[in-house]
Fold this protein.
Amino acid sequence: MPPTIKDIAEKSQISIATVSKYLNGRPVRPSTSAKIGEAIRALNYHVNQTARSLRTSRSMTIGILVDDIRNNFFAHMVSLLSDALQRKDYSSIICEISEEEESLRRQMGFLFSKNVDGIVIISTVIPQQALKEFSEQFRNIVVIDSSLRGVNCDFVLTDNIAATYNATEQFIVKGHRKIAIVTGTSVNFSARERLSGYKRALTDYQIPVNQNWIIQDSYDYEGGYRALKKLLEMRAEGDMPTAVLVTSYRMTTGFIIGVNEENVRIPDDISLIGFDNYDINKVFVPHLTCVAQPVEQLSAAAVSLLFDRMEGKNEDSQIVRIPAQFLPGDSVKRLDR
């Protein structure tokens, strides 16, 4: 016969009521938690999720919708969310969505059919009307990387405006005035915010915004690669900026591929600040200066907000913005000496 809660209580010498609280994710004292955890491991106890769902009317599953699982940032986020949910004895159902409204409607319908207890959406492009309709039917939704007005969800975001403002300012304080930005198209929420931060920094330092140096393309390797080619065309025309801020990791990777193909010297030919601190940053020479999004804090905040919603603790929509981290490197040349 498999071990029961009563067996855990006897093994740990903790009351059945307290063991039940622990197993249902409610707070108990750290010393008590340690004793119960030790008893669970010793008895090889596993929660009967079917019995729990019948007892609590919960499925113990969370849906995760992501608009591009190949995206390093999104993939990292999904992994962290899944780990955090497992620690709370929840399973994840992961679905990929596209920018099309029908894709969101189809996958949300699928998750509702599975009776999920909550949904996390990771996307920079979300059809507002569709999400508004879903949020009126189902309150346990948290969105990462977008914010929409009039939608009763919680939103967790990198402070994109401050991130690109600070990165642009790093160029400025080192003497750069001809600064380009490579970012996504205006349909992307994060791209709009990042462009806003860049423009705000230039305006605050009384540097004219050159529209030619605003390069908007797809948030992928190809977009970054094409951006490098455009900058080289500018060089041929005598209109080359001295610095460029590339505002997504995959764009940064594509940009660096182009740099290597064309033998562009960083930072001698052009200074570079990239986005997110993944593998290519560790192998690229010189060491890349970059903006790192706070993926661990974003995922933790999303889980916390989601469980607050599931437990009825917050009724109104909340927006949490978390600062990015600036990681200095060797890819920005000083021009003020």
Q: What stands out?
A: The first strand starts at residue 61 and ends at 66. The mean pLDDT is 89. The chain has 13 helices and twelve strands. The CA atoms of residues 13 and 315 lie 39 Å apart.
